[in-house]
User: Fold this.
Amino acid sequence: MAKKDYYEVLGLQKGASDDDIKKAFRKLAIKYHPDKNQGDKEAEEKFKEINEAYQVLSDPEKKVNYDQYGTADFNGGGFGGGGFDFNDMGGFGDIFESFFGGGFSSGRRRNGPERGADIEYNLSLTFEEAVFGVEKEISVTKQERCETCSGSGAKPGTHPKTCDKCGGSGQVRVQRNTPLGSFVSVNTCDKCGGKGKLVSDPCPTCRGTGKERKNRKIKINVPAGVDTGNVIPLRGHGEHGANGGPPGDLYVNIKVAAHPQFKRKGFDIYIDRHISFAKATLGCELKVPTVDGEVKYDVPAGTQPGTVFRLKGKGVPRVNSSGRGDQYVNIIVDVPKSLNEKQKEALKMFMEASGESNHGEDGKKSFMNKIKDSFK
Assistant:
């Protein structure tokens, strides 16, 4: 390490400021810390390197000597001959504590309260159920506290014993002496698995885990207006917590089935309605289906294909609100593909009354005659 460039180790240029050195160290220390790279020897060596580099470059006197002579061999070994403790890193302990949730421990303590895991459930609804809301009962299988042992994991009549190796803390301190100094780390107790207690006679129901899987029925009040992709959180209905920790949550994912007539966009509903050419021309009273039932709508004479009418307030209720969206009716004018003789005669009379002809040449002559008449 003595031949390595400490600036290069921290990703800096020579002459970097104290703030730059501090920022670079923080970033790399978090990246290569043993808690985040357990079992990774390369990351462990990198962590040692960046610490050695920081110990030199953060010390004004050592930094001056290093910049002048390019060596860190000031007192014949390590960091001035002293040991190095993961729990003693100047003012940077709080960084790792906030990042790793517990100081510089390379092990995880398991005898403290732990929140239970969250659960997801996919709930399918019909179009109408999503629009108006519904009460549903679902069945969920989850981990709960074992009723036989009350969650202790020990057979009824017996009790767990405090681990004699860690004294109930769930952690053991390990000191390692290296050429760079002595390193002290905190590891999970391998005898109790970090629980701090030992169960010699486990519960026959949960086999010492303190938990058992159970099927629970839960009632859900689905509010009006939900749509596919919405999530309903049910607090406290997830997996059971450990060591007195709170339970997790249940998240209900909503999926709404398609409707044969209605199309939904947000809180609005869209529908196509077909009418005949005659009705579009003369106007008519149209019965329009809505989620509330049929309503009557007066289609005005001369309505063109593609005209869209709005039925205000006939859409989807807004979730947890008194308002509603609208319904939009798209008018499609049907052109008959086949006509009987009576219908054909009626249309011919209509065309003649309109000054039209269904023959191209006749149409041209009629148009030219109209031009001549205009000059007269």
User: Anything to note?
Assistant: Confidence is low (pLDDT under 50) at residues 74-108, 361-365. The radius of gyration is 39 Å.
